[in-house]
Amino acid sequence: MGSLKCNFDDGEFLCDTFPEGFIWGMGTASYQCEGAWDKDGKGMNIWDTFVRTMPEKIQDRSTGDVALDSYHHYKQDVQMLKSIGANTYRFSLSWARIFPNGRPDSVNQAGVDYYNNLINELLANGIQPMVTLYHWDLPQSLQDIGGWLNEEIVEIYGEYARFCFQQFGDRVQRWTTINEPFISGMMGYYYCNFAPCINDPEEGPYKYVHNQLKAHAQAYRIYEAEFKKKYNGVVGISLDTSSYFPFDKNSPEDAKAANRCFVFRLGWMLHPLYHGKYPQEMRELIDARSKNEGREVSRLPDFDDHWSKKLKGTLDFIGVNFYNAELVRGKDDGVIAPEWGLADGIPFFDSRLPGWNRDMNAYRTHDMNWVRCGAPWQDFTPTGIRECIKWISDNYGNPTMMVTETGCSGVDDKINDEQRKEFFKLSINAVLKSIKVDGCNVVGYSGWSLLDVWEWMSGYTIGFGIVHVDKSSPNMTRSLKESGKYLGTIFRNNGFPLSK
Ligand code: GBH
């Protein structure tokens, strides 16, 4: 194994290795890679429905029906992981493949077998499975009763989680309950470009996240009471965030506004999971606005005593998903770049939109000089992850964290993906500094994504993979990109040791 040459030229690159036992991996999600949407008894989920009822919402009108057909080619995926020296694979379970109607009475043995086979194949190759229970593909029959806005979902999700712990818990040590409540809530209920596409921008995301937090706690408590002693695994959640920097470094107002963005993005979830209630700053701002709007009840719900207690202390680790840095102003003085990150023509980051965006009273923009990645919403800001990790550490007592996603979008993704290679180099070095310089407790790094998976509303127009998949070849041939080869060197070296 050749060592990486450390580059001292910029005086900033840190040559050092990660703590022993560091977790290295890459991730995928069921709907984005499995395909086999109607095979072997799988039930419909909200994405199966969405791509059929609103095909125009997907940029290239593609679907995840076949995707990369990991359902039939998972062994190739495992070999790719092995070839880069990964010790972990982060993947999600398709709820409707396990319970076609969302509930235990409908259990589909073929679905359970598929995940058993995948898990066993991983372990046979020295790779630990890390399972996401929910990465956005809700069974359609649960959406039919109101989905995440119906409180009943909390119990039902708990039953699903219990079943998965029972079936796979003897071999799966690391679980995340839910992937990115913020993104899925905002895209599904605010911008309406994700399933289930229900337009309720002012209240929808708040209700959605509220029930997801309860569902998380429900699953955590079930694991704690029924499985922890036996299996001694860990349960966390994956939270998405941008890094928020003050636009003007000398402006205390901008600094406060940047902090408020972190509170609204991460504190929204972390405060209930640590303290049993939403952050005070959020509470006050949203309560006041709701009142001004003539509402009798705040748009931000509340937890009763029972739930407050149940929520508190339900994180063994925090999964951090990071894609973007943003600059924040305390005042709207016209510096917002209106063309930035368009979602259906609506600037995704526009702080003037109602609901969450406006509630937080901060004006977000980017630097026009930043290099861009492939997706219109992504600037090339890999080192920004350090800021997020530090914010969590400073505000929640330096908890155990793991990077569960970060990556670089590309267009016409090539085997020779120089920008992505550079992204991972700088990103992983930033995480190394989080540990070695900032003293943060980061135990692992799982990049996004293993394969060029189907990218939701962008279809196949952009990719994040370190593995290219030839979708026209009969066995969906996987080949490692340059970024993947490079990651392999980092993984095997456990970082960036000084070259001898
Ligand atoms: C993650 O989402 C997901 O967990 C993962 O499934 C996904 O493949 C990956 O990131 C890459 O997107 O076009 O302006 O509406 C979080 C990140 C979701 C953020 C899509 C940007 C589109 C912004 N992204 N979103 S916009």
From TrEMBL:
Q: Which UniProt keywords apply?
A: Glycoprotein, Glycosidase, Hydrolase
Write out the similarity annotation.
Belongs to the glycosyl hydrolase 1 family.
UniProt subunit comment:
Homodimer.
- Spell out the PANTHER family in the cross-references: GLYCOSYL HYDROLASE (PTHR10353), LP05116P (PTHR10353:SF36)
Q: What is the organism field in this record?
A: Orchesella cincta (Springtail)
One GO term of the biological process aspect: carbohydrate metabolic process
| GO terms assigned for molecular function | beta-glucosidase activity
Look up keyword Hydrolase and say if it applies. Answer: yes
Q: What name appears for this protein in its UniProt entry?
A: Myrosinase 1
Cross-referenced Pfam families: Glyco_hydro_1
Q: Which SUPFAM superfamilies match?
A: (Trans)glycosidases
